[in-house]
Design goal:
mainly alpha; Rubrerythrin, domain 2; about 50% helix; binds D-malate; Citrate_synth-like_lrg_a-sub
């Protein structure tokens, strides 16, 4: 007999069907609850709400497991390239060599952006945050490719939009940085791989020959893979919700970029470095800040510790910690004062009873900030890097939603405002 739960309300029994995923996660299906009882469920922040059935990413926060399409994150981070992972997330299986070559070739054919995008970029003040620029330019792609807004795209048209976005995002991201520092835009090079090309567009100048450092490319490749998807996080849920209204891929991803920009989501890695710099400027005494973090009357918070869904450790942090050590060693930066502060905080969090009891271990944002800093990526670009990494996940989730013809997202609420009252003329108001 199919499993179900029984809800007793005013002596009446309501049966709630149980649905089970392939990894045996279970949910009560409350889809008909309001029709049956007049009640809705209340779950602010949707922390305990399964908003969709998804076949993309499996995450077990208690066990510290993360898999894309069934493949453990540890294997992908060690063995795959970012583009392979993008293909996997979007298409459901790892590409054969022929499929991969075709995918890579298509992407190189779309890495340039329309020259008019330069004019839009020129319109932004140099003080503009690159995340704002990124979100705006991605949304403006609907203007350059008007067909993309149609909800009736065939498979080839949809694929073209996907390829365009993967191809152009690094160009737009690097140019948003060049714009913010007033440097000339650097055009993509198709002979470089995806990650190396991004670094080239970020850091090269027309006046000098730029050598791409393989250690940096490899660390960045890993970071992008680790960020590529994370099931129904805030920005991904945003992409799905916007996409559920049949909004275009570019419009939906632009909304996701804005969600990611929030300091509680993708902005956290920037806040980690800002915190480390503040500690350094204060004299570098980490024990003082550890005590401040423990003091409940002090507003200071340790950034980059603990995680909403990982209750023991963030599997991405384990991988990235090793990569951080390697990259700092390779770049001869193991003695940097900022790193020393980071290591002392990390040590305290892993050994101090206060942090251990509260499971406040360093998360992926803690180490990614350190690596980005070591790679010479400017602080305000950290969240942009996260967006470049998260793009395949957003695309895969948007595509899945469309293919499954999911209904428009429309949560309910519990109204707690004024009861009905009559309008009074302005002169009669107290
Ligand atoms: C993410 O990768 O999106 C973040 O860790 C946040 C989350 O999953 O809630």
């Amino acid at each position: 007999m199919a499993e179900s739960a029984e809800l007793i309300l005013d002596g009446k029994s309501i049966s709630l069907p149980v649905i089970e995923g392939t990894e045996h996660e279970k949910a009560f299906d409350i889809g008909k609850l309001r029709d049956q009882t007049g009640y809705v469920t209340y779950d602010p922040g949707y922390k305990n709400t399964g908003a969709t059935k998804s076949a993309i990413t499996f995450l077990d926060g208690e066990e510290g497991i993360l898999r894309y399409r069934g493949y453990p994150i540890e294997q992908l981070a060690e063995k795959a390239s970012f583009l392979e992972v993008a293909y996997l997330l979007i298409n459901g299986s790892l590409p054969t060599q022929t499929e991969f070559d075709a995918f890579r070739y298509e992407i190189t054919q779309h890495s340039l952006v329309h020259e008019d995008i330069r004019k839009i970029l020129d319109g932004f003040p140099s003080s503009a945050h690159p995340m704002g620029i990124l979100a705006s330019i991605v949304c403006s792609l609907t203007a350059f490719y008007p067909k993309s807004i149609s909800p009736e795209l065939n498979k080839d048209e949809l694929n073209l939009n996907i390829v365009r976005l993967i191809a152009k995002l690094p160009t737009i991201a690097a140019w948003s940085y060049k714009n913010s520092v007033g440097h000339p835009y650097v055009y993509p090079r198709n002979d470089l791989d995806y990650t190396a090309n991004f670094l080239y567009m970020m850091f090269s100048f027309p006046t000098e020959k730029y050598e791409v450092n393989p250690v940096v490319v490899s660390a960045l490749n890993k970071l992008l893979i680790l960020h590529a998807d994370h099931e129904q996080n805030c920005s991904t849920s945003t992409v799905r919700l916007v996409g559920s209204a049949n909004a275009s891929l570019y419009g939906s991803v632009s909304a996701g970029i804005n969600a990611l920009w929030g300091p509680l989501h993708g902005g956290a890695n920037q806040e980690v470095i800002e915190m480390l710099e503040a500690i350094e400027q204060d004299g570098g005494d980490t024990s003082k800040f550890i005590n401040k973090a423990k003091d409940k009357n002090d507003s200071f918070r340790l950034m980059g510790f603990g995680h909403r869904v990982y209750k023991n450790f963030d599997p991405r942090a384990k991988i990235i910690k090793v990569a951080a050590d390697e990259v700092l060693q390779a770049l001869g930066m193991q003695d940097s004062p900022l790193l020393k502060i980071a290591q002392e905080l990390e040590q305290a969090a892993l050994t101090d009873q206060y942090f251990v009891e509260r499971k406040l271990y360093p998360n992926v944002d803690f180490y990614s900030g350190i690596i980005y800093k070591a790679l010479g990526i400017p602080t305000e670009m950290f969240t942009v890097m996260f967006a470049v990494g998260r793009l395949p996940g957003w695309i895969a989730q948007w595509k899945e939603l469309r293919e499954n013809k999911e209904p428009i997202g429309r949560p309910r609420q519990i109204y707690v405002g004024e009861l009905e009252r009559d309008y009074t003329a302005i002169g009669e108001r107290a």
